[in-house]
Amino acid sequence: MAVPLHRLDQDRHQRPKPLAANPVGRFRDDDQCLAGGISRSEADYEAVLAEVERLWGAKSGTPDGDRLDVLATLIDAYEAEHYPIDPPDPIETIKFRMDQQGLTRKDLEPIIGTRTRVAEVLKRKRGLSIDMIRRLHERLGISADVPIRPSRSDIAA
């Protein structure tokens, strides 16, 4: 179970630092504070990253380890809001996996269908069926939630 940040400071017998030296803003109680932790400023975010780097490798269950867990959770929330990652494009994912495994279009025929169908799918002229998605998942290990998304050309249309 994670220990609240204010408890970590009490356990370490530290007094709250002034806000400028307080990278996680844990004693701020205003609307600028994200999830009760990282301020919405990039400077506070950078300070929290530096604190995580300092705590990296701390043993789980120790005050430093608990603090590291809390900070990692706050960083994850901040990054999800400020630096969202676009989901991968289904066709680019298939091409990437082909490249990783040294596959050719011919190798996709048992998964997608005829040579023509493989070409249509890779050129974004035909969508993937549920059966194709299942086979891509089973045979190439592509997570089923990736190819079920619309490809970039579908979104632009």
Structure commentary:
The protein has helices at 5-11, 42-55, 63-82, 90-101, 105-112, 115-122, 130-140, 152-156. Helix 2 (42-55) runs antiparallel to helix 3 (63-82) and helix 5 crosses helix 6. It is elongated and about 60 Å long. It is an all-alpha fold and 157 residues long. The protein folds into 2 domains: 5-82, no CATH class; 90-156, Orthogonal Bundle (434 Repressor (Amino-terminal Domain)). 18% of the residues are buried.
In short:
The chain is mainly alpha-helical and 157 residues long.
Report how far apart the termini are: 47 Å
Can you tell me the residue ranges where pLDDT is under 50 for at least 5 consecutive residues?
Answer: 1-36
The main sheet comes to: none
Overall helicity: 40-55%
Class from helix and strand fractions: mainly alpha
Order of helices and strands: HHHHHHHH
Total number of strands? 0
Q: What is the gyration radius calculated from CA atoms?
A: 23 Å
Mean pLDDT: 78
Q: Approximately what portion of the residues adopt beta-strand conformation?
A: under 5%
